[in-house]
Specification:
Layout: E1 26-27, H1 30-34, E2 41-43, E3 54-55, E4 71-72, E5 80-84, E6 87-91, E7 100-101, E8 106-112, E9 114-124, E10 128-136, E11 141-148, E12 160-162, E13 165-166, E14 172-173, E15 177-185, E16 192-196, E17 209-219, E18 221-222, E19 226-238, E20 241-250, E21 262-268, E22 271-275, E23 277-279, E24 287-296, E25 304-314, E26 319-328, H2 337-340, H3 347-352, E27 354-358, H4 379-383, H5 389-398, H6 418-427, E28 432-438, H7 464-475, E29 480-486, H8 527-543, E30 547-551, H9 559-571, E31 577-578, E32 605-610, H10 630-642, E33 645-651, H11 661-677, E34 692-693, E35 696-701, E36 705-710, E37 717-720, E38 732-734, E39 744-746, E40 752-755, H12 758-763, E41 768-772
Parallel strand pairs: 1-18, 3-4, 27-28, 27-33, 28-29, 29-30, 30-31, 32-33
Antiparallel strand pairs: 2-17, 5-6, 7-17, 8-16, 9-15, 9-17, 10-11, 10-16, 12-15, 13-14, 19-20, 20-24, 21-23, 21-25, 22-24, 25-26, 34-35, 35-36, 36-41, 37-40, 38-41, 39-40
Helix pairs in contact: 6-7, 6-11, 8-9, 10-11
Length: about 775
Amino acid sequence: MRRPARTPIALFAVLATAFAAFSPVRTASATALAEGATDPIPVSLTGSSDNDAISSASDRGGNFDGSGYTFPAEELPAAGPATVGGVPYDFPSAAANNNVVAMGQTLALPRGRYSGAYLLASSSYGDAGGTATVHYADGSTSSASIGASDWYSSGGSGALNTTFRYKPDGTKDAHPVSIFPVQTWLDPAREATGITLPVTNTPAPNKSSLHVFALSLQPVVSGTAIRITDARSTFKVDGKAQQVEATVVNVGDQWLRGGHDATVTVRASGVRTVAPARVTRLAPGEQARVRIGIAKDASIPAGTVLPATATAVVRGGARATQSFQLTAGVPTYDASNASLARHESPDWFNDAKFGIFIHWGVYSVPAWAPVGQQYAEWYWRHMNDVDSPTYQHHRDTYGTDVNYDDFIPQFTAQNFDPKSWVRLFQDAGAKYFVLTSKHHEGFSLFDTKYSDRNAVEMGPHQDLVKGLFDASRKYAPGLHPGLYYSLPEWYNPANPPGNGTFPTGGPKNPYTGQPIPYTGYQPVQDYVNDFQVPQMEEIIHNYSPEVLWCDIGFPATNPQVAADFFNHAAQAGQQVAIDNRCGIPSHDFTTPEYTTYPNTVVAKWESSRGLDPFSYGYNAATPDDQYMTADEVVDSLVDIVSKNGNFLLDIGPKADGTIPAIMEQRLRETGAWLKVNGESIYGTTYWSRAAQEGDLRFTVRQNKAFYITSLTQPGDQVTVTSPVPIGAGDKVTLLGYHGGPLHWTKRDDGSLVIDVPKAARSAGQYAWVFKIA
């Protein structure tokens, strides 16, 4: 399909080191909380730091990633006390080793009771992490997963961002890099004494390593107590209200529920809260990410930065505040990374979870690849490789005189029924779709004036993008339409130098070596500015997609395209998303393909794959029994959603517009499961304490419910050792089972045990969802 994104192992580490003994168990009233008595306690990592990641103009000898690149000290906090996202830390010095690389070390913790830990961490050469083991005074242990995103691919979306990094030669590389906030849980009922870090890698090129720069521990508080952290303004708008986001943490040992719910508001000069956030249910040690709607006075220009305060008040008196800088109003975007980096994935995208990818083009005519080995949509590229099975297949099937463009007239779309397509997507439970507007073959499915190589001028002789978008907006208005666009084209004569996968120059017959026409080509001097950018502007302004899914990343598009995309959407009242393959630093989500992450990635991501074992385009050679089963689709969806991802599941229609029967069957089977269990998917968020435990996955519907999904059919009992937020009076049900609530108990070690009657086990299929309400 496209160049695979870097495949991270993803995510997690926890650290700490010894410091002077103190009693971290506190008793705090609401007054004491307001005075900051329950603030996290910074822990110095100086004695354990083993990597120099920070350089300055006067001292450039560091080596963060094993390749000699480093963070610039000039754009990071000074050594010593630093508050990031409302959490106090002891930030390291740039003068010496200043971070710990997770390599399985066991670090001592000051003995005490903590509900969690906050870290500042980052990874090199891909997201990295693993499972850490927390040790307690009674000899017991617990597991905690934590990790960090890649410093370079974040697009400036971390807690600490710089505008450049230092190269090995000491010069500046003008690309933003980031350090991220990371959290993990500790059992507040036990005294922690130490922690064993996960094993990642010693920093080296193309090996992912987890680096921790700072650590703070959250003491346990007796009674009702909260903290508010990570308050920030966003450029997202809900109705007419601009959204501010913040995290409310229950640091007490009492539930927030019943008469002890919390209300969160924001105050700033000339700004008022129009939609307060409420937290009506929050267990000890749990956190809730909330959205507060604000409006500014008309006299304040959009984009004005103001000092602000976010306040959380629990009915009954407990109170917490956090000061932050608020950007009031949403200004027009420009092409600078500082502006584009403020954009983020919209709420609808975060809540949708499930989308349909559609790979359809001239490659749907030959529709062939060695099953499970190559992308069928790469047919043209593979037929030009003498070592590829496609080279031999084409010669034996079509002969050496048939060129790829000879397939264009056979791409007819004669049975294309856009209404039935979008109705199928709805029946599948999808909330959005992404259609290939143009793949690497350079054949556009939309009406473009910059090339005659398109579906209006030849082949189907119709605007396929318009047909599907019109049907979506008429027959499935809740379905969000999106478009994929390949930045390069394999054999476009104007395509600039890339690499061996995307050769320069026009096409040749692979068997004779003779030049052949690039059908429909209109000569240009500058591929990017005279062709690629104008085509992307056509897509934006003529079709108004709600997702812009670039591919390959080179030749990088002009950042003005992203600015125009965001501004056009804002004028139309749309919220849109852009991926990380446009060749520019800023993006809203990352895009692993045919893989997922082993644990939670807080930065929004979307995993894609085909129903085919290894192809996005239709491969006629694939037998039906090789496609994903509905069980595999559902398990993938549940797993991805539990880790903060979306699942973009691909289908490959035939050249005539028919969706293969096996693909339609799998989509309908998935939709049937979602009709029963969709509440555990749509509109949920990841659980901050854990994503998984064995075959179990967790999701949260804030203030409503907690979901435990078993990917395998449960036995007589389901046991969960993770600290599930369940309390007296809570009911456990199994979605799809109508026999009433299930009996549950808590063991002395905190494990939750759910009894599962035989009738309940028989009521489900694919994945079984237990709901705590």
